[in-house]
Design brief:
With 271 residues, the protein is of the alpha+beta class. It has one domain. The strands form three sheets. A four-stranded antiparallel sheet has the order 1-2-3-4, with helices on one face.
């Protein structure tokens, strides 16, 4: 019995590490597959990743009219991609998902599409992380489709060292004592996660400021926090070009001061 106990004490940590490694690798494969689906879409859509506002435009004529920018939320991006069979709804939820509010959408309705009625995806897929809300069907954070980042990086021609998607992080990338996101891969102690870069390569990061993530402008550069808005001049706003990975449930006009910008409704754990 003592020999068996000794062997178990040796093997159990190794088995735990092996299981963690397998979960990280599977998770990375899912994120990479989602981004690969976006690249596939871009090949036939002017190098642009799936953009709901260009599919369901202002007005009721398919492919005509202005982009309906308020439709470019995280849930609509994925709903459109699933409808186009770029990936499945199940791929959007990590096997390492620790939150009870996040679960795979099991009954995506492919028959709901009807261009005559201006319906192009199943709107039941959601990204509501609030307790008591409708629930969230997406584990992963990606860039919001607003500002300079949308113009420059929501395309297959974006910068290779730009982070486009990752396991979601703590609110505004701020280190806190306890976070649901720490339980994804960080063992409950810190944020660790898979990051997908614009050239479709993956990296496993143990920091909110990966070494390759740098925000550069004509006025200089700063280390880029994956989950926070960054700036070089000291005046930060939502519409810069830095890599900012979040879940966006709604987009609305930002007011008279920012007439051509949209304000995002953000979904975070721990709020």
């Amino acid at each position: 019995m003592s020999i068996i106990a000794l062997l178990l004490s040796i093997l159990m940590p190794a088995l735990g590490r092996a299981r963690h490694t397998a979960m990280v690798q599977k998770d990375a494969t899912q994120i990479k597959s989602i981004h690969s689906g976006w690249i596939t879409w871009a090949a036939g859509n002017d190098d642009r990743y799936p953009t709901p506002g260009y599919v369901n435009r202002v007005g009721d004529i398919r492919g005509r009219g202005k982009e309906d920018r308020e439709l470019n939320t995280t849930d609509n991006v994925h709903s459109l991609a699933v409808m186009q069979n770029l990936y499945s709804a199940g791929l959007l939820v990590s096997d390492s998902e620790p939150s009870d509010n996040v679960y795979a959408m099991e009954a995506y309705d492919y028959d709901v599409i009807d261009s005559n009625e201006d319906i192009y995806w199943d709107e039941m897929l959601d990204v509501d992380l609030d307790d008591g809300g409708t629930g969230c069907n997406v584990s992963y954070a990606s860039i919001p489709l607003i500002g300079d980042r949308k113009k420059k990086e929501w395309t297959s021609r974006g910068s290779a060292n730009y982070a486009i998607m990752a396991n979601r992080g703590p609110p505004f990338g701020q280190p806190i004592d306890i976070s649901v996101t720490y339980d994804i891969h960080g063992g409950g102690r810190t944020w660790e996660g898979n990051v997908c870069w614009q050239d479709n390569h993956m990296s496993f990061e143990k920091t909110l400021h990966p070494i390759n993530s740098v925000y550069r402008t004509g006025e200089g550069y700063v280390s880029d926090n994956l989950f926070n808005i960054d700036c070089v001049t000291g005046f930060c706003h939502f519409w810069g070009g830095d890599s900012w990975l979040v879940l966006v449930s709604e987009l609305s006009p930002a007011g008279d001061m920012y007439e051509y910008q949209l304000a995002p409704e953000l979904e975070w754990d721990d709020e």
